[in-house]
Specification:
5-stranded mixed β-sheet, 5 helices, elongated, DUF1062
Amino acid sequence: MLKNWVVVPTCLPLVRRRCHACASEHFRASGKFRVNANHKLIDAWLLVLCTACGETAKLTVLERMNVRSVRPELLDRLHDNDPVLTAELLQDPVVRRRNRIALDWDDAWRLDTGEPDHLDREVIDVSVRFAARIPVRAVRLVAEGCGLSRAGIERLITEGKLVSAVRLSGRLSGDFTFTLKR
């Protein structure tokens, strides 16, 4: 029987960026946008706040774009400070690359394993699905889901009792499956 696990975000991740005021490395998204139009051109930023000193920084969303080329729904969402748009933009690789930021997902996700009736079976097939692109060590996910230590999971991988089509030793942010043989 195939078990379905889901990695679910519990809150917005922290933004990794150096604060120019206090040299802290983490910002949190305020959920607010600043939009500035100059004649036919528009700029938009997502505002983030330093976790240490509260200093505001701007992450560029739109830069010197013609107003007519921006979808009206996007403009409405920017003006309404849409929290879903905030989450979408933080996960957008173009926005992250443009602003030279990374996301810190520590303590911002949980693993939903469903009902815990699978631990006594001889063979467990599990499909892990990510509700958002959250980079998590596969060993940590499996250990948390099965109630075992990470060292125990590493041992099971070495013994060939935990197998997957993907490499389980690094971070994953995409769906995968594995089989655990006891």
